[in-house]
Amino acid sequence: MNALRRQLECRAVRSAIEACLDGEASPHAGRVAAHLERCPGCRAWAAALAAQARAIAALPAEAEPPVGFVGRVMERIEAVSAPAGRRAWRPSLVAVSGAAAGVLAAVALWVSFVRPPAPVTPAAPVPVQTSPRIAQALKPQVESATRQPRIAAAATVPEPAAKIAPPARRVRPKRRLTAPPLPGATATAASSPAPQYRETGRSYESEGDLEQALAAYAAARDEGGSQMARLDVARVYEKSGYTAQALDELVQVAFSEVDEKRWETLTVQ
Amino acid sequence: MDRPADIADLETVRRCLAGQREAFAEIVARHQRVVYGVALRMLGDRDQADDAAQETFVRAYSRLSSFRGDSSLRAWLIQIATRMCIDLLRARRRRPEVALDDADAPASPAGDDGVTTRHSLARAIADLPPHYKAAIILRHLQHMSYADMARTLGIPLPTVKTHLRRARQTLRARMEDEAAPAEEISP
């Protein structure tokens, strides 16, 4: 029983030691000092923790970015702010030609297989404001704009040669996302893009593209989406086999419901 | 928020919001090293870090009107950069292929052993899961308090403590694993 009590005390004290070493005020400072005096195990543990903290702190916190960094950032900002047609920054030729080929292929498929009742206008390319590599991973709106017709075509059986009235098809909403307002611009009815990101995520998820779904849901969560967005992220993690990350998201949803003060009283032993 | 640098930042932000776009270049120049440093430590790749750091500033510019000055501009930029890097790491599901060589590291009083240990430690940090890595970087390299970390990462304070504890445990285990074979070989 004594051993168990000592173990519990060590555990509680080590938590307080971490807080003290991190510079956080602890109401248990006196208790910690008394415990350290009589417990060599915790003394060694505290010394190791302090040494680890010193070693990490010795790593460089800052780094010199590549030459011309400020200029490149300002060029991109200029491009974002400039009216369409005189953008200073342009995507690479490969990206443009790839996107254009995708749109053309999608339109061709749409026209040859789907034959919508109304004239089809392909989704306009989204102005590239994000670094292509970042956009690819986080905000898949460019790809989704080109994928939309292809997906619709794949889900629809090609018509037979005989003229049969096409069944009414559900029109999918556009997934183009709007850029946030720029500083200095006149205030508009700015709404959170989170629901659109969630919509995009659901679409990817239903297609089985979990990686893109996760990126879209994560964007929804970070754009101030509801806890539902976080649950979406958790679900996709779980589907992908990342149980620990899924639990992490679920725990955060749960914690957000718990009064922090009450939680503190629960954790302090 | 009363440091001279913070006051200068607020003044620059005010000029940007008044329409002086070029004033934002001052902000980029002032904070580029810390933002790039965080991105590099998080992503472990210079090209990706360059992209992420640029994106951080572009996003910061587009959201500048939402900066309320509750925290410093530096902390706000770190928040944008960290969250973006976490999402990048999660979305790409990949760890850095190349561990940082820490060529920019300040001279250490330790000898070769110290350099080796530093490289091992940098590699071990690079291998941590995104949220644990962010916790270590924000606490030990950016010297943030638990409350600031919670705000930066958008997670509850108890979760910050849990992430830090688990990150430290993982780091310690990895460092011990690395040290163990060397000890066995030595006579």
- Mean pLDDT rating of chain B: 84
Span of the ends, CA to CA of chain B: 55 Å
Q: Share of helix among residues of chain A? A: 55-70%
**What's the helix-strand series of chain B?**
HHHHHHHH
The CATH architecture of the largest domain in chain A: Alpha Horseshoe
Number of helices of chain B: 8
Oligomer: heterodimer
Content-based structural category of chain A: mainly alpha
The CATH H-level homologous superfamily of the largest domain in chain B: RNA polymerase sigma factor, region 2, helix turn helix motif
Name of the CATH architecture of the largest domain in chain B: Orthogonal Bundle
Low-confidence stretches of chain A are 83-96, 107-128, 140-190, 257-269
Q: How many structural domains in the coordinates of chain B?
A: 2
**Shape category of chain A:** flat
CATH fold node name of the largest domain in chain A: Serine Threonine Protein Phosphatase 5, Tetratricopeptide repeat
CATH-assigned fold name of the largest domain in chain B: Rna Polymerase Sigma Factor, Chain: A
- The overall average pLDDT of chain A, rounded, is 64
Uncertain regions spanning at least 5 consecutive residues of chain B:
103-111, 183-187
Record field, number of beta strands of chain B: 0
For the sheet with most strands of chain B, the description reads: none
Short description:
The complex is a heterodimer of chains A (269) and B (187). Chain A has 269 residues and is mainly alpha-helical.
Can you characterise this structure?
The complex is a heterodimer of chains A (269) and B (187). Helices cover 62% and strands 0% of the residues of chain A. In chain A, helix 1 (2-21) crosses helix 2, helix 2 crosses helix 3 and helix 5 (93-114) packs parallel to helix 7 (141-154). Chain A is mostly helical and 269 residues long. Chain A has 12 helices and no strands. Chain A has 2 domains: 2-57; 87-158 and 194-267, Serine Threonine Protein Phosphatase 5, Tetratricopeptide repeat (Alpha Horseshoe), CATH 1.25.40. Chain A has helices at residues 2-21, 29-38, 40-57, 69-81, 93-114, 132-138, 141-154, 194-207, 210-222, 227-239, 243-257, 260-267. Chain B is mostly helical and 187 residues long. Chain B has 2 domains: 1-98, Rna Polymerase Sigma Factor, Chain: A (Orthogonal Bundle), CATH 1.10.1740; 104-187, Winged helix-like DNA-binding domain superfamily/Winged helix DNA-binding domain (Arc Repressor Mutant, subunit A), CATH 1.10.10. Chain B is 73% helix and 0% strand. Chain B has helices at residues 4-17, 23-43, 46-62, 73-92, 112-126, 130-141, 146-153, 157-185. Chain B is elongated. Chain B starts with a helix and ends with a helix. Chains A and B meet through helix 1, helix 3, helix 4, helix 6 and helix 9 of A and helix 2, helix 3, helix 4, helix 5 and helix 6 of B.
